[in-house]
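Is FE2/S2 (inorganic) cluster placement plausible here? Inputs below.
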Amino acid sequence: MSDFQTVAKVGDIPEGQGRSFPLNGTMVGVFLTDGRYLAINDFCPHMGASLADGHVENDAVMCPWHAWRFSLQDGSWLDNSRSGIRTACYEVRVEGDAIQVRMSPPPTAQTPPDSNPTATPSCQNPSPNAG
Ligand code: FES
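Reply from A.M.:
I modeled the complex. Tokens:
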């Protein structure tokens, strides 16, 4: 599946916070930071906390259980970027007042450490997308 799917409306996610939404059998955390919507897999790779409940700061979210920090830009684990641990990230767009997420390509969770470190995550979207 490659199409964007609506998960919420503009205004459902307060600035500087996240919310989790079910999408294709996965919980997706969608965050609004500096006027941009960003989405990652809501399941913390450590022990499964909801990342959408974490503190958001500088395009990162801190897991509410053990304070691991993940990039909202690419899902990488910011506390040890060489570990290869990451959660999947997804493209987000706003169409009218609908916040939409695209699930494909497949999640990049638990990428092996020796995988291509220069690959550009599919979720990066440098243009503002908040409505
Ligand atoms: S469950 Fe997220 S850091 Fe432990």
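Short version: Residues 44, 46-49, 63, 65-66, 68 surround FE2/S2 (inorganic) cluster (CB under 6 Å).
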